Amino acid sequence: MKPDNFLQNVIAWLFTALFFWVPLFFTPLNSELFEFNKIILVYSFTALITGAWTARMILQKKLIFKRSFLDIPLVLFLISQFSSTLLSIDPHTSIFGYYSRFNGGLLSTISYLLMYWAFVANCDIKDVKKIVKFSLISAILISIYGILEHFGHSFSCLMFGTGFNVECWVQKVQERVFATLGQPNWLAAYLTILIPVSIANSLNPAKKSGITQLFNYLIIFIFYLCLLFTQSRSGFLGFVLSFAVFWVILFIINHHQIKSIIRPFLILNSIFLILVVVFGSPFSQINKYLYYKSYFSPNQTNTQQLVPITSLDGGISESGDIRKIVWKGAWRVFKHYPVFGSGVETFAYSYYNFRPIEHNLVSEWDFLYNKAHNEYLNYLSTTGIFGLGTYLLFICSFLYINLKSIFNFKFLISKQIPNPKSQLGQLEIRSIRNLSLALFSGWMSLLVTNFFGFSVVVTSLYFYLIPAFTIVLSKPEDQSVHKSLSPGTYHLTPYLIIPVFFAFYILHFTLNLWRADFFYNQGQKLSKTGQFYESYQKLHQAVKISPNEPVFLSEISVAAGNLALIADQQNQASSSSELTQLAINYSDKSLKISPANLNLYKTQVKLFYTLSTIKPEYLNKTIEAITQAIVLSPTDPKLIYNLGLLYGKAGQGELAIKTIEKSVEMKPNYFEARNTLAIFYEDIGENQKAVEQLKFLIKMSPENKETLENKIKQLEQ
Question: Which CATH superfamily is domain 534-716 in?
């Protein structure tokens, strides 16, 4: 085999491995089990693929690149991401992505686009088919994984050492499965992409044997059943759209042979209907008429039964109500940063500058929102009208070119098929057209799931690479462009070697990211158990590998601060002083790198509060740090409440009461704040005000009525 052909095969197999392993891959060794490991795998494959692609150019002494209709939209989108990163309120986060989410940063976008162009330039129809085949195998394994979770058996727990059960998960995985994806909505979005592909596979006219068809229907059955077990409304809606798009277009392009597809259409709809009747859907409106609770769904719950929270009750807020509030905040961010946004992946910071006050009245009021839970609003708020505009341009361009190619598919594909007019040639054309339509339909589902959520590593991979697949499937070979270098340019060969070394450097860099997070995770766990010396050692290893990662610097500052406290308690004044300064330096450096990161200020508050037990003057530093945090998040009642507590500790009782009263104004159902107010009022002799707070607490917490009433009686005596 010629070296060039070998490299081309390597690229094809790397893409195949990418789509097989990324959905499956996770480890318990990192701070984030799922997304972090998947993005590390994406970076690694990107380095290998681009390295092999560059090596082909070196061997052929030509620039191997194939133009496509989507090049201009993608380049414009990439420019928008660069622009927003340059003007970002936190460039570090914009480059690498928000720590724990990772996907969506500039590096990840570059990776996806490089792989798009690499696939179009190096792969052909047989490679698409191979990737689809292995993608389906991966999805089968994941679906079985998820179905077993529903019935109380998780391979994850088996791997973690707790047995073949679901006891290793805090989440109620039996009610909403997530398998190897990490979250039910992400698993649902993944399955909605591949269900149309599995349907197209069942329609393949070259595979009509009874056993094969039965197996194809079994795959669809498994995918759909797992989708139902996610209880994902966005996933279910995405499936409905992709299913409708697939069959409507299929009926249109096969109107002369409509009888041949009526039978599978009816069979599949019957399967789906039966599964909904037996296991239910994510929607109570549907279940009211169809769902029959059975032995096979003992843990079925309905996400629609959640009661919207009021200002007084303690129920669980409906996710749709929470989304509306977050979307309102995202719109406010956009109005403040209309052109380029606040910066790629900075929603976790910019949202809290403009967080609606009504967010304090939902059950998830103190959760961290690092995404807008709407991909379009997320781009609008973080990359502005330029970012969203180019993103929508890419979507619309793909919709246009793909619909055009589907309806003109026979002409385009016939140029790639030997003997296209023969019976086998016609069957091959029909099979490839169905596959292209299925990929397009699955891609369409992402437009829905991204509307109610956000993209993750797996869905982003398909979002950017499915257009590459369909272009390869429909583009005649003779329209491909291999730009040869002009005569006399052989001297460029040494310069082309540079990208190869750069690719391997990126691979090394990526592996170091994983190693650093591994040590960070160990250090974080040790810190939580009070083993600060061991924690510091692990975190120091993480910082040594990634010295400019603010999350690591912030965490090690806490460990160093606690070691300073321990040294002080052991009368080691010199060591305590050195560790104190070291902790402050780490914290200051983290904020210098990531100045808009609210979490880093919260950690600094924790640090200075710890140090204040060594030297009381650090209490003022604690107040300064939390005041700065409030500047970044002015509607957060917890920050204001804690500021009030600090004022109280500093002996400023009147200011403490006014501050805590302000937190109660922001969140009337703030139990801890009202309880603290009652104590402060009692301390200054304002018993009637204390009684008012306690009466309010009775409404909020009826189970504590007796205790609170006894306290009221004491105050009224």
Answer: Tetratricopeptide repeat domain (1.25.40.10)
